[in-house]
Write a structure and sequence with these properties.
mainly alpha; transferase; Prepilin_IV_endopep_pep; EC 2.1.1.-
Length: about 160
């Protein structure tokens, strides 16, 4: 039964991420409604897993993953003087909840992959002439890819 909950929660997360990706790619913003629904899905999934498994470890991991990822993105937002949007910080809550469900190491890998993929996307856009060094680029899609990649690595 836990697997069914994880699959359902994962599908919810994919739907939310698909909508968020589309918004960020088109408008360079992440709507609160969708970042909130993503976070809610992660916490509900963790809570139901805990009820079915009779342990609180999944919920603790989701809370710590969400808090740690959001805190690190908040610090990056401050250091970047607003170049990193608040939507990206809110996105980190949901991604951290989903990845934290599998362990804090998975959340750390997700964050690292997001930074690497975001940097590669920015470099590629500059090299291809689609952006300048001072251009604003959406960071949500690399964050989502990083989380997805970390979850795939954790499952293998």
């Amino acid at each position: 039964m836990v697997h069914v909950v994880l699959i359902g929660g994962g599908l919810w997360g994919l739907i939310c991420c698909g909508c968020l990706w589309r918004w960020d790619a088109r408008e360079h913003r992440l709507p609160n409604r969708w970042t909130g629904l993503l976070a809610l899905g992660g916490f509900v999934t963790a809570g139901v897993v805990c009820l079915l498994a009779g342990t609180v470890s999944a919920l603790i991991g989701a809370v710590l993953g969400a808090a740690g990822y959001a805190l690190s993105m908040g610090v990056l937002r401050l250091l970047s003087r607003g170049q990193l949007g608040m939507g990206d910080v809110k996105l980190a809550v949901g991604l951290g909840a989903y990845t934290g469900l599998w362990g804090l190491g998975v959340t750390a890998v997700a964050a690292l992959l997001g930074v690497v993929l975001g940097g590669l996307a920015a470099l590629g856009a500059v090299v291809l002439g689609r952006a300048r060094i001072d251009s604003s680029l959406p960071y949500g899609p690399p964050m989502m890819l990083g989380a997805f990649g970390a979850l795939v690595l954790a499952a293998t």
